Amino acid sequence: MFDPKSKILVVDDAASMRMTVMNVLKELGFSDFKEAPNGKAAFALIEGGEKFDLIFSDHNMPECTGLEFLKLVRALEAWKKVPFIMITSETEKSMIVQAVQLGANNYVTKPVTKDALKSKLEATFARMK
Which pTM does this prediction carry? Predict the structure, then answer.
């Protein structure tokens, strides 16, 4: 499993959803978070020199969607292997396939639960070994 000291970026346009994801991650033992309301703000953190061990990003956001943010992140050599998990209310398979093709390591569908998040984190970690 990922180190509990991992620095995690949580990106979602809904503050309540960011809080929900961070609370679930806290239940799983994580404690170092940074949050952003959209992909544009999240990418500004990265461009500003912030380092993250794991990224959770919503799919549908204004200004810069999760997929656009994913493309920006994966275009940077130093960020190609940083685990990126999409959080989405989209259940359409083509949307999920597109995210994976662009470099998402996994996805979680809303509503986010502790068991679902733990399962996706474990699966993502196992694939990265």
Answer: 0.96
Closest CA to 71 of 40, 45, 92: 40
Give the residue-averaged pLDDT of 73-86: 97
Closest residue by Cα to residue 36 from 65, 70, 7, 12 = 12
Q: Are strands 32-36 and 54-58 parallel, antiparallel or unpaired?
A: unpaired
Bridge partner residues of 87 (DSSP): 58, 108
For residue 96, the model assigns a pLDDT of: 86
Structure tokens at 103: 């470099």
Per-residue confidence (pLDDT) for residue 95, from 0 to 100: 82
